[in-house]
Amino acid sequence: MSHALHTARRLMLTALLALHMTAAGAAALAGGPMAGPATPARVGIWLMTDGPAKVQLEYWPLAQPAAVKRSAPVAVSTERGHSARVELEGLQPATRYAYRVLIDGTAVELDDTPAFTTAPADALAPRELLIATGSCSYIPDPPHTLTKDSFGAGFEIFDTIAARQADVMLWLGDNIYYRDSDFEPADEAAARMHQRWAATRSFAPLQRLLRTGQHVAIWDDHDYGPNNANREFALKATALAHFKDYWANPGYGLPDVPGVFTRVPLGDVELFLLDDRYHRDDDAGTDPARTMLGARQLAWLRDALRNSHATFKLVVNGSRMLSDRPSAEQRGGEGWHNFPAERQAFMDWLVAQRIDGVFFISGDIHYTHLTERERPGTYPLTELTCSPLTARVHPRPFPVREVAGTLVTQRNFCTLQFSGPASARVLRVAAWDTAGARQWEAEFPATRLQTP
Question: What is 27-117's CATH topology?
Fold first, then answer.
């Protein structure tokens, strides 16, 4: 049978199956629901079914169970991998809402009722805030058989994170792992990439975490494209469309600058989510004009930091930003250190503009540690690198500028806890193993992140 005929038959069978499921009303919830970051008046909820359907949400203030409202129906289609984003608007600020999923008018029964809390009306109000974070979440192919050499394992970490009841789960990239076969043949790549997302998002041990708190994400190479992929990746526009289908971020790039970068305000904490892939040059090049972020994204970042009134400004990237090469002969993996001119220009700008409250967060390298860079005349910069969640731990870690006592060489996640009154805000950073045992903790009073 020719490849063209095989593809035509496969597409026809897929279409017939979709029609049958729709006629039979057989669609079921396959992933989620998962809330994105809530504003005082709205929130986006992501979910995925196993076939075409109409989905809705019923929602109500937790203190007023009789005040139920229903969202407009959203069509779930095969073209978007049966994923959907339902927008809830007209909400009350600082209010805890519960909700349920309806598929073709029938309520889905879950073990726990999903819930979310809207932001306070005062956009900069200090509040108790807990962010959980991690990177490198590898899910093996079904039937998810594990061996001693499995690249992905330790899936109990998802329930451990959920048990922390964080307000926000910040996914630091490599949130799925595309396989090289997902991009071939070219005419099937979009469907195969959807299948990879669907297989990951329907993974049973992940569901409790998806339904807990609110979620935001960036990407790194493995949920963007092949290993170490950069701006030359031919399917990057397709990868971006898929990323939008499976997350509920508040924004994705600018109208004329594609990417996953955006701002997420969380009271007096603000996330600056970066895209380290779409515009990136090759890490191994020598041209001093090479870029990791691209000139227009960097201009956006500078404007966003300059205009932010947040006490804590968390700059979030897939690749490390503050680390250096282990030696002049060793490149030291991917990172902003491979783009020294671009990085130094940004660091000089931070000093010149006297930007307070900056704290970096990254993933990628399959071990965790804090990095610190001293800066004469101003506060030192610190970066939390947190990795991996379920992927294999790096067998030979090579941290540079490591803060003593913060190296973790097992599967782990991290938390960032913000507390205290406006005059004495404190950030506490901690790393935790898969069972929830704390590995270390470090404290950063807001005054420590201020220009003298």
Answer: Immunoglobulin-like (2.60.40)
